Amino acid sequence: MLGPVILAASRSDRMRRLISAAPVTKQVVDRFIPGETVDDVVPIIEELTGRGLELTMDVVGEDITTPEQAFAARDAYLALVDRLGDLELGERVEMSVKLSMFGQALPGGHELALAGVRPVVEAAAAIGTTVTLDAEDHTTLDSMFAVHEELRKDFPQTGCVIQAYLFRTEADARRLAATGSRVRLVKGAYKEPAEVAHQDRHEIDKAYVRVLRTLMAGDGYPMIGSHDPRLISIGQELARKAGRKPDEYEFQMLYGIRSDEHLRLAAEGHRMRVYTAYGTDWYGYFMRRLAEKPANLRFFARSMVSKG
User: Fold this and answer.
1) Residue 154 is among the residues annotated as catalytic for this protein
2) Catalytic position from the list 182, 184, 271, 273
3) How confident is the model at residue 58, as a pLDDT?
4) 3-class DSSP state for residue 132?
5) Could you confirm whether 213 is annotated as catalytic?
6) Pick the catalytic residue: 58, 134, 172, 205?
């Protein structure tokens, strides 16, 4: 299986050097990860917001092993908030955070992650924007949801992500829809065991639609995270049936993927948010995305000859 092989490569210093040095790697990475610093991505932020799009920014980072690294992640997000405030784009650009970057996997990690992410959420609220807690593998979700619930006591706009392929997600969606939360729904990309997650692609798609129907019928704010044309069409129909106005839900897609579709949806009056990752640890982020779904290898190969 390719997944474990790619994941092993993500931890290999030798592979890091080889892959980082290959000219073709930079071509691909630059399309999907537009920079390493805030200064690198400011022009992208200004360009996309100027074209009617919204963004969610992710400072990439993997393998947090010390509290100091977790503090550095916090500071990187605070620096991003400062720049968004200077640009007066708080209402157009939110942030996505992975609690693993804030030390969730370290001893005492739940408290450490909560303490680290809270000032980011506070700073975001001060400039009129929000933070969404990304979902990671299923072993981390109880902690993530607990942090989400705690943050929403003071910052009810704080969002979270749920993954359609997990068996638990339909119950999570009912709970979150009832509380009026902001929820991004994705299919799920981590390698999860059959005991906790659907393995068949068609079953995952059906679960996605069931969960999205629950979110659309609820009191929250659904965020449709998908590049799948069929699911996007279904999302539009579910929103219509639920009587939702265009500002009562949104679509989200990754930077560099189906860019024409981003613009099409925005031109039709939909809220369209582009998930944009940046940072110095692009290698770990890039390889882990391939490991989560090795079929992406084919996509990245096609991307070399297509700019659509």
Assistant:
1) no
2) 184
3) 95
4) strand
5) no
6) 134
